[in-house]
Amino acid sequence: MKRLLVANRGEIAVRIIRAARELEIETVAIYSDADQGSLHTRLADYRIALNGRSATETYLNVDKVITAAIQSGADSIHPGYGFLSENPYFAEAAKKNGLIFVGPRPETISLMGAKDQARKTASLANVPVLPGTEVHSCQKATQAAINEFGYPVMLKAIYGGSGRGMRIATDPSQLKEKFEEASREALAAFGNGGIFVEKYLPNPRHIEVQIFGDAYGNVVHLFERDCSLQRRHQKLVEESPAPNLPANLRDRICKAAVELGRHVNYIGAGTVEFLVETDEENSARGNFYFLEMNTRIQVEHAVTEQTTSIDLVKLQLLIADGKKLPYSQQEISNRGHAIEFRVYAENPSKNFSPTTGQISYISRPFGIGVREDSWIEAGTAITPYYDSLLSKLTIYGNTRSEALARAGSLLSEYRIEGVNTTLEFHRWLLKQTEFIQGQVHTNWTEKNYNNQTVYPDMVGPLNA
User: Cα(425)–Cα(411) distance, rounded to whole angstroms?
Assistant: First the structure.
């Protein structure tokens, strides 16, 4: 691997370029009209315009991205996360054009990308799955299947993601309306209105396991992350190790993730996600269920990098280049505690609605145990065309208590002016007893955050 095209933008493009540079791999950036002059285009060795502003015209256009790779002389493509990262046709197009795709085989992406197929595959690998239905195109067939396990249920699009194509029905009277809403949204977003149903867990924890596989049959895990703190089924905070997770349950979950990886002959970085049942008396009961598998690097990979001291993006590149995994399971350890706070261009006081504008001022925190992955600078324009993620602030400590205390100090110093951000939510969060005690679940934000600006950003920059 000599020259890598980074088929993405924003902070993940910056992250990939820096990892490739350490391995002495040249990089090619692609960019839309809206991203001209963005940080990732300046860091790369070469850059190619995709001509257009929307994601559909640019970063989601398979033909344009493959053509850019060929024209640039790249021998490989890293898709990052989002956009085309889990598109099997893109991975296959790269392969057909003689390009190394930094990710699993196209057939693996296809198998695990459709949620109904992924459920069946997990079950075949003896990984627990929630009671659920086959894919249905009408709500009558769905109702008949639901009678076997009862309400409440979660209706899910087979190609859904980021909370789209998902609805909750608490009784039969809601099924028709919720089914039609989910199917309609899924058809518009993903081109497929197929819906399946799973038993709905009211207040589960969301635990995911980072796995890695190579082309020689080796699969390992790099321990778990807790991603329970969410809004609209999208993550806000991730941490590792998962607080209050019994050791035997952690071992069972990690083992299940590796077994699934082996079952599908997984190559590269992947994440197996689970729901863990919770209740008021016990924050992590013994039942866990397969949710989905993400066949790519995760947004929150920095959490695992901080606790394992393993560069996951560099490892992706090495595995894609045909190298064996350099670690056995026994050689991988989890040390200390890391918490990642996602900073979005959103207004928490208005139901986390996306905001646009121009970054006028940034004051970043520095010190022991702080890492920021970002792409923004003073003057960066935040447009409505792409995901609203601005930055990821990952705080490390020897213990969770130390990481939380450090986070409180560092987040108080972090300033982003020009657009609303989720920094105010994170400052509020660090004052909440249930979060401090590690007792949150996937619906906790909606139930506890009252959309009030409790710890607002500064109006202007601090004086020297």
Answer: 11
Average pLDDT over residues 428-441: 96
Sign of CA dihedral 23, 24, 30, 34: positive
DSSP β-ladder status, 219-231 and 288-294: unpaired
Instruction: Enter the tokens of residue 143.
Output: 């109702």
Q: CA 359, CA 44: separation in Å to the nearest integer?
A: 22
pLDDT at 141 over 80: no
Mean pLDDT score of the chain, rounded to an integer? 92
If we measure between CA atoms, which residue out of 132, 128, 69, 72 comes closest to residue 101? 69
Q: How far is CA 314 from CA 22, 108, 257, in A?
A: 8, 21, 22
Q: What are the structure tokens assigned to 340, written together?
A: 């990642």
Work out whether the CA dihedral 313, 315, 316, 317 comes out positive or negative: positive
Contact 341, 397 (CB under 8 A): no
pLDDT digits (tens, 9 = 90+) for 251-295: 999 999 999 999 999 999 999 999 998 655 554 457 999 999 999
Tokens of 425: 């939510």
**How far, in Å, CA of 48 to CA of 175, rounded?**
48
Rounded to 5 degrees, φ, ψ at 294 are: -100, 120
The model's pLDDT over 371-421, given as tens digits with 9 standing for 90+, comes to 999 999 999 999 999 999 999 999 999 999 999 999 999 999 999 999 999
Q: What is the CA radius of gyration of the chain?
A: 22
Q: What is the set of active-site residues?
A: 296
Average pLDDT over residues 330-336: 97
Q: Which residues pair with 346 in a beta bridge?
A: 354
What is the pTM (predicted TM-score) of this model?
Answer: 0.91
